[in-house]
Amino acid sequence: MQSHLPHLNPSDATIRVGALTVRFLISAEDSNGTVAIFELVVPCGESLPVPAHSHERFEETIYGTEGALTWAVDGAQIHVGPGDALCIPRGAIHSFDNKGSKNAKTLCVITPAELGPAYFRECAAVIDRGSPPDHALLSNIMRRHGLKPI
User: What is the CATH number of the domain that holds 117?
Assistant: First the structure.
């Protein structure tokens, strides 16, 4: 019988999506599909590089660790800074902007783990092709991964 010992950051994978950096710590494969966790770094002046969206199959919880992001959730503006937590429920339309003067870092928790590194790699491939990105192609990628672009 093979032993599966736990280890730190089993999914350690860093993905650049335009100006943003996504570092996966735990993916569905590491948690039997229960949770995906990644760090998100958003430089000052940057925003979500894909359309505002919702998702029906999972909640997304945001925990601020550095700087601050302004989240738009169902029309409400919510400032998330260090030590703040925001749970985005299934079906809520959301996006974010870094309106601050320094980079923001958040920890993002997806439950269950319906979203993983493949989504971010596919988006990165489209965004890195040039500006402006092909929004129709991004929307198709989003839909395939359980997100509903608005």
Answer: 2.60.120.10
